[in-house]
C-alpha cells in the first residue's frame, strides 16, 4: 500500500518528531547531542529552513521548523543520513537508528504554533527530567529566555506576544496539552532500568549490548526481564526488537549471580 501523502502546512511550519528504532536511546552522551545540533545547524544554512524550537530527548527528537524552498522530507532525510553515518561509525554499528518515517504535524494557525512551541519546551518537564521549565539543557529554551544569539529563529515566536515577559510567562505556565504525544507505559523509570542494566551486565549503552555475542546477549535479556524491566523498556534501552526479546524469554538460559 502506498504511503499517504503528508498534509501541507498553511504556514509552511511543521512540528516533527523523530524516534529511535524500537524506541531505543539515540543520545548516549553529551557529544551525541552536540553532534546532532551541529548537523541541524549545518543543514539549516544549506537547505534554507528556519528552526523555531527543538528538544532532544534521549530516545526521540522534537523540531519546530519553517520551510520554503526545501520540503521537510528532504530536510529530514539529509539530517538523518548524516547523523546515522556518524553515529554508526562512532559506535561501530550498522543499520537503522531512527524509525522508518518521522512523524509530522502541520501548523496551520498562530494559536497552534504557540501551543506546539510550549509543548516542545515542556517535554522534559512532563517526562520528569526537570522540575521547572528551563533546567533541561538540550532544548532551545534558553534562546528565548536569555534572548541569546544562536541559530534559533526566535523573532517569529516572540512576535506572537506583547512582550518578552509575556512570552516567558506563557512558556512557563502549566499545560497538559498534547501534540503528537510520545506515549510510554513503563512503570520502572529509564534511569532505574539503566542502573539495573549497568549493574547486571557489562553494558553501558545500546551499542555495547548490540556488540555482545548472541548467547551472552540472550542470557542478559532473560536476567534483566526477571529483574523487573518490561519487554518494551528492554527493547528501548538495548535496541533489541521486542519480537527477539519475547523469543529469548521463552527459552531457558543459565546465568550466574
TrEMBL record:
SMART domains: Y1_Tnp (SM01321). Residues 9-123 form the Transposase IS200-like domain. It holds the Pfam family Y1_Tnp. PANTHER family: TRANSPOSASE IS200-LIKE DOMAIN-CONTAINING PROTEIN (PTHR34322:SF2), TRANSPOSASE, Y1_TNP DOMAIN-CONTAINING (PTHR34322). This is Transposase.
